[in-house]
């Protein structure tokens, strides 16, 4: 994947990946990148509200983003959601980690799901910014499911980063360019 979309504001490549730990500032940076394009904004939400605390988190995130964003709930079917994005839009997919978790818990074929996602990202006519957690910097998890999740998340992040033209890491709210160039107006 190469090239750049013709944008009114900051130019983003077809695929940008923003990686970081919990509360690192990765989602805020991703929102800023999408907002800076001055294109219609689409938020592909992968979180599911299994309890009151998660429902509250989701509601607060929607309020913080404001009415300028069109939210599409896609906890499992990101491919379909990406295929419906108009070419003049810009997408924030938040986040690949929850999407992977949803498929893992549903006992889906993770390799096939990841391949489908990568194809859908390549076919999306609008620029996409994917948020994903970097979970490999911690201790080795104590149980099989957690170790499998950590390994699968690392593999997915590598595939996303290989396909992306821009990859950013975020630590303590500060972006680190890992691949490509940060748009000047989005920093």
UniProtKB/TrEMBL annotation:
<comment type="pathway">
    <text>Cofactor biosynthesis; adenosylcobalamin biosynthesis; adenosylcobalamin from cob(II)yrinate a,c-diamide: step 5/7.</text>
</comment>
<dbReference type="GO" id="GO:0005524">
    <property type="term" value="F:ATP binding"/>
</dbReference>
<keyword id="KW-0342">GTP-binding</keyword>
<feature type="active site" description="GMP-histidine intermediate">
    <location>
        <position position="61"/>
    </location>
</feature>
<keyword id="KW-0808">Transferase</keyword>
<dbReference type="GO" id="GO:0043752">
    <property type="term" value="F:adenosylcobinamide kinase activity"/>
</dbReference>
<keyword id="KW-0067">ATP-binding</keyword>
<feature type="binding site">
    <location>
        <begin position="45"/>
        <end position="47"/>
    </location>
    <ligand>
        <name>GTP</name>
    </ligand>
</feature>
<dbReference type="GO" id="GO:0008820">
    <property type="term" value="F:cobinamide phosphate guanylyltransferase activity"/>
</dbReference>
<dbReference type="GO" id="GO:0009236">
    <property type="term" value="P:cobalamin biosynthetic process"/>
</dbReference>
<feature type="binding site">
    <location>
        <begin position="20"/>
        <end position="27"/>
    </location>
    <ligand>
        <name>GTP</name>
    </ligand>
</feature>
<feature type="binding site">
    <location>
        <begin position="62"/>
        <end position="65"/>
    </location>
    <ligand>
        <name>GTP</name>
    </ligand>
</feature>
<protein>
    <recommendedName>
        <fullName>Bifunctional adenosylcobalamin biosynthesis protein</fullName>
        <ecNumber>2.7.1.156</ecNumber>
        <ecNumber>2.7.7.62</ecNumber>
    </recommendedName>
</protein>
<dbReference type="InterPro" id="IPR027417">
    <property type="entry name" value="P-loop_NTPase"/>
</dbReference>
<keyword id="KW-0547">Nucleotide-binding</keyword>
<keyword id="KW-0169">Cobalamin biosynthesis</keyword>
<comment type="similarity">
    <text>Belongs to the CobU/CobP family.</text>
</comment>
<keyword id="KW-0548">Nucleotidyltransferase</keyword>
<dbReference type="GO" id="GO:0005525">
    <property type="term" value="F:GTP binding"/>
</dbReference>
<keyword id="KW-0418">Kinase</keyword>
<feature type="binding site">
    <location>
        <position position="94"/>
    </location>
    <ligand>
        <name>GTP</name>
    </ligand>
</feature>
<dbReference type="InterPro" id="IPR003203">
    <property type="entry name" value="CobU/CobP"/>
</dbReference>
<comment type="function">
    <text>Catalyzes ATP-dependent phosphorylation of adenosylcobinamide and addition of GMP to adenosylcobinamide phosphate.</text>
</comment>
<comment type="pathway">
    <text>Cofactor biosynthesis; adenosylcobalamin biosynthesis; adenosylcobalamin from cob(II)yrinate a,c-diamide: step 6/7.</text>
</comment>
<dbReference type="Pfam" id="PF02283">
    <property type="entry name" value="CobU"/>
</dbReference>
